[in-house]
Write a structure and sequence with these properties.
about 30% helix, alpha+beta, 5 strands, about 25% strand, five-stranded mixed β-sheet
């Protein structure tokens, strides 16, 4: 019994929150803490992508974790050890970790759409560029008011 309790105490529940076709979803993954500590961030992401294939199909996915103060922290290579420390500091039989998968490379922000900003989308609209005005422009010949000493030496001309 003591062995199963120690294994259960070592088990971590990882809740991965993400949007799928505009709907919020949550998948529960379980992993041993000592195995999780051996993972690098890339290996953890690979495991999540293997378990949740719809995330692997997205162009760019970032992960954030929720700390003890309920703040979402970007999960990066530099913050990965802090992420592991936040897991070990939680009490209970099954420590839970909340991860959020966010599409895009920029930091997590509230979801804004062109409609929420009061604008319409211009995606897919083709516009033709009118270059006919360029043929009417006469070439501009630049003549400096004073010639520099280098220019005078090269051209062999007068100073003024």
């Amino acid at each position: 019994m003591a062995l199963s309790k120690s294994l259960r105490a070592n088990l971590i529940e990882i809740k991965v929150n993400f949007d799928y076709h505009g709907q919020p979803r949550c998948i529960l993954l379980e992993e041993q803490y000592n195995v999780l500590c051996e993972y690098s961030l890339d290996e953890l992401e690979a495991k999540i992508f293997a378990e949740i294939p719809c995330l692997a199909r997205q162009d760019c996915v970032r992960f954030c974790y929720r700390d003890d103060e309920n703040t979402w922290i970007d999960l990066s290579h530099t913050s990965y050890t802090r992420f592991l420390r936040s897991i070990s500091s939680k009490n209970g039989d099954y420590p839970r970790v909340n991860l959020r998968a966010v599409s895009g490379a920029s930091p997590a922000t509230e979801k804004t759409t062109p409609q929420s900003l009061g604008r319409t989308s211009c995606a897919g609209v083709k516009r033709e560029l009118d270059l006919s005005c360029l043929s009417q422009v006469e070439p501009y010949d630049y003549q400096p008011a004073k010639k520099s000493s280098i220019h005078l030496q090269i051209s062999g001309g007068d100073r003024y």
